[in-house]
Write the structure tokens for this entry.
Amino acid sequence: MSVQNTNKNIVPPSEIERQREYTELVRTVLSSRFADVPKAFVHTYGCQGNVADGERLKGMLRDMGFAFTDSPDNADFVLYNTCAIREHAEDRVFGNVGKLKNIKSARRHMKIALCGCMTQQERVAELIRTSYPFVDIVFGTHVTHRLPEFVYRSYGTGKRVFETGESGGVIAEGVPLSRDSGFRAWVPVMYGCDNFCSYCVVPYVRGRERSREPGVILNEIRQAVGEGYKEINLLGQNVNSYNGGMNFPALLREINSIDGDFTIRFMTSHPKDCTRELLDTMADCEKAAKHLHLPVQSGNNRVLGEMNRRYTREQYLELVSYAREKMPGLSITSDIIVGFPGETDTEFRDTLSLVEAARFTSLFMFIFSPREGTAAAKMPDETPHAEKVARFQELERVQHEIALELAAGMAGKRLRVLCDSFGDGDIVTAKTEGNMAVRFKGTPDMPGTFQEVVIEPGDSWKLTAALDGCDK
Ligand code: SAH
Ligand code: SF4
Ligand code: F3S
């Protein structure tokens, strides 16, 4: 079931052009104020969707004339692109912004900007307005493409800039882009979320679901592949509700037919919309990594109902077995929330048994964090925190055992991996098609290339391997 893309609110090209003009104006301001090239420090928190935004923010800053630094200590411009998914995420941002106060008192000209999901919340914007007077620019998720204008206003007037208004969300194409990696590309296919899972802040801070045009997505991917990108990651809070004039499986087939040696990944798939058509397409598409991130959240039907997830434990497990039938060896990963309001110990046991049945390659586990404005934040929650922590640890133990068994079962397998880094002891880190981390002895030229390795036997869930040179 997909939601109609009725409110496709594309930013007009004239507005993107206006931002290019601001970019040039900022360039002039910067060259008159700085003897050397000014440096920007940009840090992104949260999901890959936010990382993709961060790469556009960096693209705009680069075009304005900034170079980049990896520390706020010597930065002239600091930008935190924030995440609001759990309280802990917000606390980290506030902690780091607090530290900037001292740095700024020694570097008075430094500009501090905050954007992303946190600042889209009125409560947070207000708190920054009143308690963090040293923050110069605050903007929400719907006006990211207007960064050049905000920077210009800040340098021009010296006054604080706040742009955090509500919106159903927009699609901004043609924004400059500076990718963090030379071989892993993040490509949003849709923005926003209409699912309103009862615990989740995303629909409030990211607006309604809206899909990018297939032609725009395909061009972005063709260009990335042409530049040598080896892994194309298609992003959306629920890629299965992609609706840009074709559905997600159709888009996947189009991408698969682009020439070149690259892998396609996508995330996230919501189980309620993960159709057999999608799984069949994934099986057919040779470039689609046989890895499915399918967040289950809970193994108990009452809790799933309260979460507004709109599938049952049985439907989820059926989906898992269909997917594995179609793609033997498929790696499935998931997300789980422990200690949702009212979750009993017996209900938590259902989550444990689901995890045992599903045998996830890896699992992202979270303790429920109440988010203001969501339905779950108002639900009575009597389980003591210590009890939630105990459940979390038990789940970790169960998953750890499974990960150990899965890793042991990999010994002797020959796999094609994409290398990430080269470091101490000539160790290359890489990712398998199933998104498992693996380490082996290699050479400095390997990051960003595919290599064939053979997994070595071991007693850890961390895979080690040897380069497979025997039959070459
Ligand atoms: N769109 C994705 C999830 C994005 S958020 C999906 O529907 O699967 C990533 C993960 O954060 C979620 O899967 C969930 O496990 C976790 N999460 C979201 N809100 C949370 C909250 N309030 N407390 C704890 N974990 C949360
Ligand atoms: Fe949040 Fe649910 Fe949307 Fe995922 S599908 S972003 S969990 S509301
Ligand atoms: Fe966080 Fe916003 Fe992503 S809340 S998880 S950065 S959509």
Remarks:
- Residues 249 and 281 are 6 Å apart (CA to CA).
